[in-house]
Amino acid sequence: MRGFTLMELLAVVVIIGILAATASPMFIQVMRDRRVNRAAMEITGMYRLARSRSLGRGTAVLVRWNGTDGIFSMREAVSITSPEASVLSSNCTTTPWGTPTSDREVTFLQFGSTPDALAQVEMVDITGTQQPTVDICFTPRGRSFVRYNIAGNFVPLTEVPRVNVINQRTGMVRTVMIPPNGAARLAL
Fold it and tell me: Which NCBIfam families match (predicted)?
């Protein structure tokens, strides 16, 4: 019976070590790209959930992007009619968003806003201009409204705003598009 010599075993171990060392950076890059892709899918899911919730519950639902803090928040309109009961509000334009008696937070997503964060998230309008805050509101009748200034008025969504999720280390960009019908989708 013939076995392996110590030199042959050491040569195999060295070759495996070299292969592992060269594959490691690619593996790390793939894992980072997957995390950025997952973040883009979560943003897409939030917009879809907001639209579905609005249609299903009969209330206006707002998704707010705050670029300063890197937060997407979903809020549901509520109009208090009496101390015993609350009625859902179905109007995006007349709901005073941001007051405890007019809406409640449903969920939020937070992304790192520091330079060392893995993903940079930015919201851009149809002209490609980055917007610091964006409100997109869905009504129970399937209409979508947008405003790029919290103090401004809502206008019907007729363009396709985009959310870019950028991998800071590899440069890969995943884009979430929000068309006028409100059914967000991830660009290929």
Answer: IV_pilin_GFxxxE (TIGR02532)
